[in-house]
Amino acid sequence: MKKEVSVPLLFLLIGVVLITFGGCGVDIKAENEKLKAENAALKSDNNKLNLEIQKLKEEIQKMAEKEALLSQLTAENEALKKQVEELKAQLSKKKKK
């Protein structure tokens, strides 16, 4: 008796599962395709952002090099200004003599 009830119940359960998954198959496939497209778009965006990061790092490096050069030139300029002032002082001393 127990076996007679369990077999139809098992078939009913299998039927419900198949209907449930069968009915959602189209929706699941559509969502899967949508997610694949989003994934591809995100990967593309990620690649673009990585390239932009690389370009920005290169620009930062160039800016650092330019800043170092500017500091060097500023120091040279100050040294030359001091030399000019010293030369002016020497000239004015010579003119007074």
Tell me what the structure shows.
The protein is an all-alpha fold. It is 98% helix and 0% strand. It contains one helix and no strands. It has one helix at 2-96. The longest helix is centred in the middle third of the chain and has 95 residues, at 2-96. It is rod-shaped. It starts with a helix and ends with a helix. The model has no long low-confidence stretch (mean pLDDT 87).
Brief synopsis:
With 97 residues, this protein is mainly alpha-helical. Helix content is 98%, strand content 0%.
Report mean pLDDT, rounded to a whole number: 87
Shape: rod-shaped
Radius of gyration: 40 Å
Number of helices: 1
- Could you name the ranges where pLDDT drops below 50 across 5 or more consecutive residues? none
The SS-based structural class is mainly alpha
Helix content: over 70%
Largest sheet: none
Q: Give the end-to-end Cα distance, rounded to a whole number of Å.
A: 136 Å
Q: Provide the β-strand percentage band.
A: under 5%
Order of helices and strands: H
Chain-wise SSE layout:
Elements: H1 2-96
Name its key features.
1 helix, mainly alpha, 97 residues
